[in-house]
Give the backbone structure.
Amino acid sequence: MTAERPHPCDPEPIIEEFESALRRGELPDIGSFVAARGGDFATLIELVHVDLEFRLKAGKTARVEEYLYVYPQLRSHSAALLDLLVAEFEFRSRTDPALQSREYEQRFPALIHELRRRLPAAPIPVTAPFLPPLLRAPRRPLRWHDYHILEERGRGVGSVVYAARQSYSGRMVALKLFLDSGITEKEVLRWRALADTLSQLAHPQVVSFHDVGGFPSEGATQFYVTMELLEGGSLAQRLQSAPLSLHASLQLLTSLARTLHAVHSKGVVHGALKPSNILFAGGQAATPVPMLADFGIARHLLRTAAVTSRTLRYLAPEHFASEGKIGPASDLYALGVLLYEVLTGTVPFPATGNLALTQQILEDEPLPPSRHQSAVPPAVERICLRCLRKDPRQRYSTASALVDELDRVVRQLPPAAC
């Protein structure tokens, strides 16, 4: 039998209606509820997660097998089944610290290897919601669940990143721990779906996800993401050390736009593109290959207000509208900010306070790059300013269209300009 696979849709209105029904004490049948509202298999999976979470939080006994009996099609979708088991484990662990992953291996022996990768071998106490700053590598690796922390690589308002080694696989990873408690299980499920999509894309310039999850910590849940570990630093670090030439700037933007076109073709929007999220595999070559990391973080940061002016500067106006649609054009705006910055050494809207900066993004027009750097060619300036249009419809229609324009301009530039 062919597995039913979820496909992209917006299940949010159905989920919110279902949650409201549960809060009123109703017990709607999930299958009928989804069918009556035109939902799909992905929506059914979301509602099963909501129902499982609701029952476990209410102190009721709920097990994944109950849902498999009613909705046997879930068995043929191993990724969805595994996510349900992990969610059950995480919620039960909050009230049962002695819960062992061995129980799940016995219940679902066919998933034993995946369960061992996703569930901790034994509960390991965490004494704080995040680890303290590691200014240099510790004498001995610190243990955090299934990971040995080797050194800190970066820290922001909402997260900290460590170089770590996974005990079970021995794999070196970048372990990102989220420092705030505003992340919801629903957001983690979205990130897991995003990680699956990006894994299927398997693009050489997209930093791969390894795992997304959470562990109980001081009555809450410590959420984390593990990703491919890169050793070449970020674009932010490179811009601090030396400016890019015009040729290198255009080459960088063209490479990023090509990668975004591939990502957009899968229905994925980055949403938080900025220099610190553009990484390099290793070395300090003159023409390094940029890689995109940290997909899908902007929505969470804006919702929790855990966002700094360093992030706001790269967000398109539609990010701040109550009903603004975040789409591929939002990423093209961020590329415009990046191009402006590498051309001029500054950003189009330099205000420091979040309120003043947001007002500039929404209301002001950027100064032409040539006002900062007279050597910027007019054709390059036009590309930059088009990406920065307030109205998404006035930007390039696709990332591929931007690539075509960049290629055309580069071909027409005199050698001396590069």
